[in-house]
Design a protein that fits this description.
This protein is an alpha+beta fold and 187 residues long. Helix content is 39%, strand content 22%. The protein has six helices and eight strands. A hairpin with a 5-residue loop joins strand 1 and strand 2. Helix 1 crosses helix 2 and helix 3 crosses helix 4. The protein starts with 10 loop residues before the first helix and ends with a helix. The relative contact order is 0.14.
Length: 187
């Protein structure tokens, strides 16, 4: 469901789950504060999954960049007890729909190190892109400073980022639909 102020009670647990997951995977995930997570909930820019018995199950949020020309789908996390049942895919689909509902003309992007997230993004119509095709908003890139791979020198050169950038451009999908439509009529 779309998160709201009533879900603020889960903010600490969400942040802890992100931290633990990043440590387990050995990859960098930009840390967020509980206050930041709550801000997303109150603004209606987050999706949360809660079990029937009230336990936190999963979360994701969106952030706009570059004058709302870009929307990032970020922070996808599923609590350990709820992994392996398709919950991440359901959250990813809902955060994508929420992004399209709130910002229908914006390009949506995701940066990830996870193959599962790459697959989910591909199924939604995202394509891998170089970082140069993502937002140029310096505030976004400041978020990478919380990543363990940020600014690490190895053999006197910067270590390569482990992330893959993925982009959904609504204009590309509108054009594709228009190209397919005449073919349907001819059949």
């Amino acid at each position: 469901m779309v998160a709201n102020e009533s879900h603020a009670i889960y903010a600490d647990e969400i942040c802890e789950e992100v931290f633990i997951s990043a440590r387990e995977r050995g990859t960098g995930i930009a840390r967020r504060t509980p206050e930041y997570v709550i801000e997303k909930m109150i603004a209606g820019k987050a999706v949360i999954a809660v079990s029937e018995d009230g336990r936190f199950a999963g979360f994701s949020y969106i952030e706009t960049w570059g004058g709302k020309q870009y929307v990032a789908n970020s922070g996808l996390i599923v609590a350990h007890a709820f992994r392996g049942v398709g919950l991440a895919k359901r959250i990813k689909e809902r955060i994508f729909r929420l992004s399209r509902e709130l910002f229908p003309d914006a390009k949506i992007f995701s940066i990830t190190t996870g193959a599962a997230v790459m697959k989910m993004n591909h199924e939604l119509g995202f394509r891998p892109v170089p970082f140069s095709e993502l937002t140029h908003d310096p505030e976004f890139w400041k978020g990478c400073t919380g990543c363990r791979n940020f600014n690490i020198l190895e053999n006197n050169s910067f270590k390569m980022c482990l992330c893959t950038g993925l982009l959904y451009d609504p204009k590309e999908h509108t054009e594709q639909s228009a190209k397919k439509e005449p073919m349907k009529k001819a059949q």
